[in-house]
Automatic annotation (TrEMBL), chain A:
Compartments reported by the entry: Cell membrane
Pfam families per UniProt: BPD_transp_2
Example of a GO MF term: branched-chain amino acid transmembrane transporter activity
Protein name (database record): Branched-chain amino acid ABC transporter permease
Organism: Rugosimonospora africana
Lipid bilayer topology: Multi-pass membrane protein
Keyword Cell membrane recorded: yes
UniProtKB/TrEMBL annotation, chain B:
Keyword line: ATP-binding, Nucleotide-binding, Transport
Protein name, UniProt field: ABC transporter ATP-binding protein
Gene Ontology cellular-component terms listed: plasma membrane
PROSITE patterns (alphabetical): ABC_TRANSPORTER_2
Gene3D superfamilies xrefs: P-loop containing nucleotide triphosphate hydrolases
Highest taxon of the lineage: Bacteria
Protein's organism: Rugosimonospora africana
Pfam families per record: ABC_tran, BCA_ABC_TP_C
Single GO MF descriptor: ATP binding
InterPro entries referenced in this protein's UniProt entry, alphabetically: AAA+_ATPase (IPR003593), ABC_AA/LPS_Transport (IPR051120), ABC_transporter-like_ATP-bd (IPR003439), BCA_ABC_TP_C (IPR032823), P-loop_NTPase (IPR027417)
Taxonomic classification: Bacteria, Bacillati, Actinomycetota, Actinomycetes, Micromonosporales
Length: 315, 252
């Protein structure tokens, strides 16, 4: 019974991502998948390593710009451009992580925020490369030309199914990391760092590896986001982008892996509905939802539902 | 002393002007049980943290088997065969007893970095982990999460995690703290068993436990070594009676 139930979320999740662009406006479906992967990357650090990064926009945005520039200047097929972006994010994460993982709590959040702000300023000043406030426009999207197997890659609906395998690879990687010996050590470090050190685990090195892996996944998401929109703006490096990913994790349930994508889907869809209704204060509403969830459902959407299911199964 | 497993020279540690450990010299003989006793605030736990790298000394030097280990981080010192337990029970609340021992056994293999492998590969440690649990009498609660264990069992698991490292030196910070008589007896027997081919350093308040186990006793007060010697010798020393044991204890 329990074993079969374990695969229920997986099966449901696969069905949802398979039909998403059929039930929603395809660009919204693309945004949901990208943000979901980004939020999962943040959950890997916040939920499983106990580190609250408030600067993950640095990795999402750096990858978005890298992927955009690679596609624009080399004409590389989009998966290669996205992977180049993820690699750039991972490389950037090495020095940033090295300098920040020795801090914990609010200090870690502040150091990561500072680095993200630095990247924002650099992108804004380096107009020749990034286009400054105009961003990168008309990023080409190709894979064996523009019409692989007779599908129109410029159509978001078809592009969704071409980018989905890469995104799923990212989710699979996150799942594997959490359920690996490494993932177990991370949880041990999160719960009792002194004891983990006494057992011989170099805590800072583990945190650094977790940081780089998380940045690579955030980069994967950011690269896919750039390819989905075919333009890259400074917003991708803005601190509110980091904040949005953190909100998704808290809303979905910290350390649940499944919660973040659910919250990402809800928030992206909500913002879509609000913008269609010409409601300008989107932040006000998501902020309100955030406050309610933090006050009433501390375990987030996923944690609360899981607890209810458990009670229902026992009772 | 050539046979010293651990030796400490002129070791000091300040906390914002307060000297918690003050120019301590100490030699821990190979394969001995060495007890550190003294009133609260004497610097015993600080000394433990200095020996295991959790604190860096303000001055002085720590040697392990002739090798200078001063200033090495805790995980390196653990890797050199020095395992410690903690005074306040320090476990992983969500992991089961056997999973915690598996984690301890994996510590030095470097396999903990394998983020691409399934957690099931840790099963290779299941059997040796069960043997460690049997050693401390926890085999029947192997699957119980750390946070759900009774106090005495938590203390036993604390010891098991240290033993799982197969240490040359075992540092036990108040292994019988808060235990009932029965658990104390079991712990003393266990330490008797595991001390073979091993050096044990323990902080202990219970003098009868010290008397049963210790080959050598160092008495600390106010961060300094007051007296060092055999148990009977130390117990009879008027300075010790005055500073720590009190006259009532000597009469008993």
């Amino acid at each position: 019974m329990r074993k079969s139930l374990r695969f229920l979320p997986l099966a449901a999740g696969l069905v949802v991502v398979a039909v998403l662009p059929r039930v929603l406006y395809p660009p919204v479906a693309l945004d949901i998948v990208c943000w979901a992967l980004f939020a999962v990357a943040v959950d890997l650090l916040l939920g499983y390593t106990g580190l609250l990064s408030f600067g993950h926009a640095a990795f999402w945005g750096t990858s978005a710009y890298t992927a955009g520039l690679v596609a624009e200047h080399t004409g590389a097929p989009f998966p290669l451009a996205v992977l180049a972006g993820a690699a750039a994010a991972a490389v950037l994460a090495v020095p940033v992580g090295y300098l920040s993982v020795r801090r914990t709590g609010i200090y870690f959040a502040m150091v990561t925020l500072a680095f993200a702000q630095l990247m924002y300023v650099v992108a804004n000043q380096w107009r020749g490369l990034t286009g400054g406030e105009n961003g990168l426009q008309d990023v080409p999207r190709t894979l064996f030309g523009t019409h692989p197997f007779g599908t129109d890659l410029s159509d978001p609906y078809y592009f969704y199914y071409w980018m989905l395998p890469l995104a799923l690879l990212g989710f699979l990687a996150a799942w594997r990391i959490v359920h690996s010996p490494f993932g177990r050590v991370l949880v041990a470090i999160r719960d009792n760092p002194a004891r983990a050190r006494a057992l011989g685990y170099p805590v800072h090195r583990y945190k650094l590896v977790a940081f780089v892996l998380s940045a690579a996944l955030a980069g994967l998401a950011g690269g896919l986001f750039a390819m989905s929109h075919q333009f890259v703006t400074l917003d991708t490096l803005h601190w509110t982008t980091s904040g949005q990913a953190v909100v998704m994790v808290v809303l979905g349930g910290i350390g649940t892996l499944w919660g973040a994508p659910v919250a990402a889907a809800i928030l992206v869809r909500l913002q879509d509905i609000l913008s269609l209704a010409h409601f300008e204060e989107v932040g006000l509403l998501t902020g309100g939802v955030f406050v309610v969830v933090v006050l009433l459902f501390r375990r987030g959407i996923w944690g609360t539902v899981a607890a209810l299911l458990r009670r229902w199964r026992i009772g | 002393m050539a046979a010293a497993m651990m030796s400490v020279r002129g070791l000091s540690r300040d906390f914002r002007g307060f000297r918690a450990v003050d120019r301590v010299d100490l030699d821990i003989a190979r394969d001995s049980v060495h007890a550190l006793v003294g009133p609260n605030g004497a610097g015993k736990t600080t000394l433990f943290n200095l020996l295991t790298g959790f604190l860096t000394p303000t001055a002085g030097r720590v040697e392990l088997d002739g090798r200078d280990i001063t200033g090495l981080p805790p995980e390196r010192i653990a890797g050199l065969g020095v395992a410690r337990s903690f005074q306040i029970t320090s476990l992983f609340p969500q992991l089961s007893a056997v999973e915690q021992v598996e984690l301890a056994l994996q510590g030095h293999s470097g396999r903990g970095m394998a983020f691409w492998r399934s957690r099931r590969t840790m099963r290779r440690y299941r059997e040796p982990a069960m043997r460690v649990l049997e050693q401390v009498g926890l085999e029947d609660v192997a699957a119980v999460p750390g946070q759900e264990l009774a106090y005495g069992r938590k203390r036993a698991l604390e010891l098991a995690l240290a033993l799982a490292l197969h240490p040359r030196v075992l540092l036990l910070d108040e292994p019988t703290a808060g235990m009932g008589l029965e658990d104390i007896d079991r712990t003393v027997e266990l330490i008797e068993r595991v001390r073979r081919d091993r050096t044990v350093v323990m902080v202990e308040h219970n003098m009868s436990v010290v008397g049963r186990l210790a080959d050598r006793v160092t008495v600390l007060t106010a961060g300094r070594v007051l007296v060092e010697g055999g148990y009977d010798e130390v117990r009879a020393d008027p300075r010790v009676i005055d500073a720590y044991l009190g006259t009532g204890h000597a009469a008993r």
